[in-house]
Design goal:
Blueprint lengths: L13 E3 H14 L4 H13 L1 E3 L14 E6 L5 E7 L10 E3 L3 H6 L7 E5 L5 E10 L1
Parallel strand pairs: 1-2, 4-5
Antiparallel strand pairs: 3-4, 3-7, 6-7
Helix pairs in contact: 1-2
Length: 133
């Protein structure tokens, strides 16, 4: 048994069948180029509850959602749109799901908190404040 800090409990997440399929493919095809975030995205899609009906996705972060979140360490609040890598444009606040923050956001709902590791091996925690389509 490890005496280190326990792994954080991951919040339950929900994604649609189309997003699950596309995100799984994206994670697999990105393993060689972006191994850390691709593994994180793959883990998130594998542990997600996958639903067929869009009604079950109301209030959940999905591809194309506008998301307001707080960085729990700094208190900074950001509004972003979660997009696929080819649609990303930070000047338009469009962040790729193939970034640590983007992969962390997928499937969450208002009030949920997720902790993840940045490329610099720092722990980061985000709280979802608002989600809209």
């Amino acid at each position: 048994m490890s005496k280190g800090k326990p792994e954080p409990v991951l919040p339950p997440i929900v994604i649609g069948t189309d997003d699950a399929r596309r995100l799984g493919t994206l994670a697999n095809s990105s393993m060689a180029v972006f191994p850390r975030v691709a593994h994180f995205l793959a883990r998130e899609t594998e542990r997600a509850k996958v639903v067929v009906n869009d009604c079950d996705l109301r209030g959940k972060v999905r591809m194309g959602s506008q998301v307001r979140y707080a960085d729990d360490k700094t208190g900074n609040i950001r509004d972003v749109v979660l997009v696929y890598p080819h649609e990303a444009d930070i000047s338009l606040k469009r962040i790729s799901v193939l970034t640590p923050v983007g992969a962390a956001l997928i499937g969450l709902s208002v009030g949920q908190v997720i902790e993840f590791q940045t490329p610099g091996h720092q722990k980061r925690s985000l709280t979802i404040l608002d989600v809209s389509d």
